[in-house]
Each structure stands twice: as C-alpha cells, then as structure tokens.
Amino acid sequence: MTEMPVRAGVRRVGEVDLMVDDRGSEDWPAIVIAVGFGEQLGSVEFPDDFADALCVRNRRVVRFDHRDVGLSSGFDDQPVDHVDVRSRVRGQAVDLPYTLVDMADDVAGIIRSLGDRPVRLVGVSMGGIIARWTAVRYPDLVDSLVLVMTPFDLRPTEGLPAPDPTVVEKMVAKAERRDRAEAIAAAVEAWRSYAGTEFPFDEDWTRRRVTFAHDRSYRPEALARQLAAMAASPPIAPHHGTITAPTLIVQGDADPIIAPAHGIALAAAIPRASLEMIRGMGHELPPAAWPQLLDAVAGSNP
Asked: What is the CATH number of domain 6-298?
C-alpha cells in the first residue's frame, strides 16, 4: 500500500488546542471521527490501522484528541468531583469547565479548519452525543452522520434499558489514578467487560492499544471531568427531529452498555436515519468486525 500523507499537529479552536491527525488526500471526501469516553488518538477506538484502511477507500480521515484528553488542552486547574456532580446534577445548575455542547463546538472548529466542504461525521458512544450536537448546532458542516453504539440520550428514557451497572463501574473506574501496571490492567478488563458474544476478545491487541495510550498520555482526572460533562450536559433527545443530515446508526445487539433498543429508538427519532444492527457485537470495535465497520463508516463510493 502506498504510504498515506499524514498531517498531524495542534490546531487552535476557540480557546483550546486540539491534537489532530489528518491523513489521506485533501481532495478526498472527509470523515471526521469523534471518539468516546476516555479515548485518544491511537487507542482502542479507530487506531491508525483503521484510519489507513479508510484512506485506501479514498477517504480523508480526521481524528483528534478531545479537549482534556490525550495531547489536547487540559483543565487540570479546574478539578471536579464527578461522583458529587452525578448525584446532584438533576435539576441543578452545576459549574463545570465544559459540557458536551462545548466539545461539539470543538468539532465544528476542526471541520471548519479543513476547508469549505461539509464532512461525514462519525460519533462513537459519548462521541455520538457530541456528533449529534454538532449536527444540530452546525447543520451546514455535516453532510452525513454515522452514530456508533451511542445512547438515545444521557438522561434515563422511559422504555429504554439502563446500562449494566457492573460494566459501568469498570468504565467509571478508569477515572481513578493508579500506577502504570494497575491502570493498564484495569483498562483491559474494562474493554473485556464491554465485549459481546460474536467476536472473541483479543486481549493482546487490546493491551497493546491501551498501553500505547497510557504511555502517550495518562490523565485520569480529565476522565472525571468527562464524566461530569456527560452528567451535566443538556438532553439531546428533544433535538433529534431537527437533524437534517442522512444518518446511519450502527449498533451491536449484544452491547452491555447501550442496549439495542437505543439504536432502534434513534432510528425512529432522527428523520433521515437508518439502522445497521451487528449481530453479537458489544460496546466495542473489535478488529474482527472491521470489515462491517469500514463499510458503514466509509459510506458509498464518491
């Protein structure tokens, strides 16, 4: 395979610096990817190999570290107690460094930095909420949406199952500071708990990706702020009907965090949405599922 051009570096968006990895020809249709809770460039969600496989399909692939994660601007001078925030946020104003709406504004800034053309915006889990806010607030920047294993809303919704609490506990535990070996082991076990029934959990591959991310940037206090941002963000569900971009929802039917009913409800609520259910996939993007995921993320040929 011909080596793809990679334009990596910090881009100033508003008052934050975001680390961006922009690869493939600038003339190709652009895909911008917003990852989920705690993820950063090169970790488990959409590592370089996945991005390169999209480039082979003549896609420009733009990934980035969210604010407060990886090599992007941090907010360590504004600590939060995410447990306290999660317990009192309902119906109360909470003073936080940022919410998911601010993170959507970051995405819009990245898209604008690419040129004048709207993009295919992919959001995964928490990133799926951020992608929806981007589409709601900046419809001219989003040509199409792909929402992968993402909740209908971050507020409890009648008729939609809540996440498995034991799995959520493992996810939330990543916001606790540990020594290197313990932090890596805890992250691997969290990903193991997210796995579904169809794709064998690849522990060695997951450990390599988690280790790479840990050594690149270990900021568990930032994950506490991400949890608080999710808890305190306004509900997205009332805005689903205003999303004008064609939307593909990708959901695993064995997801212990986001039950399949969430994907079904999203497909019904967003006007131009379709649903692709992947049999046996959990809250994961395992390499064994990449053939299906690549088709979904890349979309039709230009």
From this structure: 3.40.50.1820
